[in-house]
Amino acid sequence: MPAPTNMFKQRLKQGELVIGCWAGFADPYPTELMATAGFDWLVIDGEHAPNDLNSITAQLQVLEGKHSEAVVRLPVGNEWLIKQMLDAGAQTLLIPMVESAEQARELVRACRYPPEGIRGSGAALARASQFAAIPDYAQTANAQICLLVQVETVKGMNALDEILAVEGVDGVFIGPSDLAADMGLLGQTEHPEVRAAIEAGLGKIAASDKAAGILALADEAADLYRAWGAQFLAVGIDVVMLAQAARALMASWDAKR
Ligand SMILES: O=C(O)C(=O)C[C@H](O)[C@@H](O)CO
């Protein structure tokens, strides 16, 4: 019995548009709720949400067998964190702040068991192998790992061609907020210069053998990004949705007082 099939990776390879959402409450309960909405993927955010290995594992557990595929974003891309998250059962990783082909190659190696990579061998303890209930997990796991790298700085965008040439990177996600900030346009993701960089970047990625991804928090941006080549498109953040709805509701009653 091989490692579980990574349906998110399979859908990307088939060229499907997959719609996702951020899951930022760092708790399995709201993440399980978000999965009932039918998103194709949910980002369990270890970068900007207060997640740790245990909270990420609990969210992987509630998403098991659901339509919404788990995409685990690490706070940083390093070998031991990748090892922990893959052993916990994550099959799709989103790694922020990738700025060079060498960095991308190191991430690929960290995601793979030898001889292709350096992922430590501990499948007997790992949820990923169903605690060794999948006897040939180590031999079949590499093919089911989906590595998504975030390019979100000027340096990263300038290295995009080289990053796109790295075998083992399955998708490239452009981070509009961090890219705008690094361009000296903090908070201005709709600035013409940021939009131009995003359009060029998504176009390059879509023309490569990788999938293009991005986050849009408004329909206007989502439509543009889709037209520019985005294939894994996140269209919301659960924390933002709840905050906005709660404040709007209270404001409506404040107005009635
Ligand atoms: O830079 C970006 O934009 C992203 O990487 C997405 C954001 O980090 C997301 O967490 C919303 O702020």
From TrEMBL:
GO molecular-function terms, A-Z: aldehyde-lyase activity; metal ion binding
Gene designation per UniProt: hpcH
Cofactor(s) needed for function: a divalent metal cation
Keyword set includes Magnesium: no
Name used for this protein in its record: Hydroxypyruvate/pyruvate aldolase
Entry keywords, A to Z: Lyase, Metal-binding, Pyruvate
Top-level lineage group: Bacteria
Keyword Metal-binding: yes
Similarity remark: Belongs to the HpcH/HpaI aldolase family.
InterPro entries linked: Aldolase/citrate-lyase_domain, HpcH-HpaI_aldolase, Pyrv/PenolPyrv_kinase-like_dom, Pyrv_kinase-like_dom_sf
Coiled-coil portions: none
GO-annotated cellular components: cytoplasm
Pfam entry (one): HpcH_HpaI
Gene3D superfamilies assigned to the protein according to its UniProt record, in alphabetical order: Phosphoenolpyruvate-binding domains
Species whose genome carries this gene: Thalassovita autumnalis
Domain HpcH/HpaI aldolase/citrate lyase: 19-244
Transmembrane segments annotated in the record for this chain: none
PANTHER family in the cross-refs: 2-KETO-3-DEOXY-L-RHAMNONATE ALDOLASE, PHOSPHOENOLPYRUVATE CARBOXYLASE FAMILY PROTEIN
Catalysed reactions listed for this entry: D-glyceraldehyde + pyruvate = 2-dehydro-3-deoxy-L-galactonate
